[in-house]
Amino acid sequence: QDEGANQSGLYELRGVVTHQGSSADSGHYTAYVKKEGRVDPKTGKRGEEDGNWWWFNDDKVSEVPSTSIDALA
């Protein structure tokens, strides 16, 4: 048995890459990455996630709600 393997088969979506354009060779790619909770400097423990995502679009980085990710489907 593989130590550390995901035994449940369930995964959590943590990132999405999108493309707009007529082919993979031309167009525009952007990426969404799920935010992690902040680390408490005293305890080193990670806090609760707020459900928001980072949207990376060229040199712009924006915080977006999870509904923006739902709309990609």
TrEMBL record:
One of its GO terms (molecular function) is cysteine-type deubiquitinase activity. Gene3D superfamilies: Cysteine proteinases (3.90.70.10). It catalyses: Thiol-dependent hydrolysis of ester, thioester, amide, peptide and isopeptide bonds formed by the C-terminal Gly of ubiquitin (a 76-residue protein attached to proteins as an intracellular targeting signal). Residues 1-73 form the USP domain. Keywords: Hydrolase, Protease, Thiol protease, Ubl conjugation pathway. Its EC number is 3.4.19.12. It is an enzyme of class 3 (hydrolase). InterPro entries: Papain-like_cys_pep_sf, Peptidase_C19_UCH, UBP14-like, USP, USP_CS. GO terms for biological process: proteasome-mediated ubiquitin-dependent protein catabolic process; protein deubiquitination; regulation of proteasomal protein catabolic process. This is ubiquitinyl hydrolase 1. The lineage of its organism: Eukaryota, Fungi, Dikarya, Ascomycota, Pezizomycotina.
